[in-house]
Amino acid sequence: MKEAYSLRSDREPAPNRLFFAIIITYLAVSAVFTAFSMAGQPLRLPMVLNLISGELTLLVPALIYLVLTRTNVRRVSERWGLPLAAVPLLVLLAYCILPLISLINLGSMILGGENAAASLGGTVARLPLWLSLLCVSILPGIVEEFIFRGLLYGTYRKRGAWKAVLVSALLFGLMHMNLNQFCYAFVMGIIFALLYEATGSLTAPMLVHAVYNGNSVLVMHGTADAADIAGAQEMLLGMLSDGGLRTQLLITVLILAVTALVGLAAAGGLYVAIVKLCRREKQVGLLFAGTSDRKIAVFRQRQGKAEGEEISRRIWGPFLIAGTAVSVLAILGRALLLQLA
Predict the structure, then answer these.
(1) Which of 95-104, 259-268, 308-317 has the lowest mean pLDDT?
(2) CA–CA distance, 25 with 312 (Å, rounded to integer)
(3) 57 touches 26 (CB < 8 A)
(4) 157 and 307 in contact (C-beta within 8 Å)?
(5) Which end of the chain is more exposed for a tag (fewer CB within 10 A), N or C?
(6) 307, 102, 109: which is closest to 215 by C-alpha?
(7) What local confidence, expressed as pLDDT, does residue 38 receive?
């Protein structure tokens, strides 16, 4: 029997326009704040609004996109539920990858001259813990994963599994608009996409994302002096300029690297357990076996996941190229200004 499979290569994915709109919205909002600041009348937002302003630059274009494309929100994820036993495993996995993300963060702080957490540390520490968790942990976990693993990756994966993983992770990193966060957000984007494949549910990356951000909130609340967060990057650069402290920093990096490797090994074991709990062995097996896009598409059609779908190989197009170029220029420009300051 002939499989219901078709191949298209002439259309740019619709979510590329969403990514472009997000980047333009971010730059427009930044330009407004800069203009008021240069005019001597800086805009001062309430603390909560300041914390969620970044999510609003994602949420507003996303809501407009959903309305214009008439997207069925329920179908953005293959399913939304998770086996109850998978929840603690996902939380443990979030902490297992923490040393790796910390190591990447350390390196990007040295290269980029920026500690992104410093800009939020003071605000987070002054708010009640529950409100900080809501604004910095739960809301970003839901909004960012819905957009980048749901709308973007969910569309890209029809056009090549590993290509979709890498491109969606790249855009997730670029969306943060600074070199410090780009480095570790790119790696986290890969992990989040693999978690979606392991479970078939956006709830999994949403949960792990929220746990990771929640851990940062707890650290900020546990820091006695918010200035300690802001001063971490200056202290790091000071260690690099001092011979004795440079050795101490190297030892710290080596310990962190070993911890990251152990954490990754543990995360791998947890990942396999999660795949089995969610009965996704065949789907994940096809992904890691490097199976062709056509065979994956046919398999998904047999499972009733993609009946009538048109599969295309194309991800890149004018909107994605423009959005990527603008965000890269903005990140490099910001890094250069920080180096000159």
Answers:
(1) 308-317
(2) 28
(3) yes
(4) no
(5) N
(6) 102
(7) 84
CB 172 within 8 A of CB 323: no
What tens digit of pLDDT does each residue of 24-43 get?
999 999 999 888 888 888 87
Q: Which residue reads 């969610």 in tokens?
A: 278
* Cα 44–Cα 49–Cα 54 angle in degrees, nearest 5: 105
Give every CB contact of residue 62 below 8 A, 6+ residues apart in sequence: 18, 22, 143, 146, 147, 151
AA identity, residue 181: Q
Q: Which is more confidently placed, 23 or 236?
A: 23
Place of tokens 């990942």: 271
Per-residue pLDDT for 4 more than 80?
no
Q: Where are the alpha helices (DSSP H) in 223-305?
A: 226-230, 232-241, 243-277, 281-288, 293-302
Residue 266 identity (one-letter amino acid)? A
Contact between 164 and 315 (Cβ < 8 Å)? yes
Q: Rounded mean pLDDT of 276-285?
A: 91
Contact 293, 313 (CB under 8 A): yes
Spatial neighbors of 57 by CB under 8 A, at least 6 apart, are 22, 25, 26, 29
Higher pLDDT, 114 or 133: 133
End-to-end Cα, the chain, rounded Å = 67
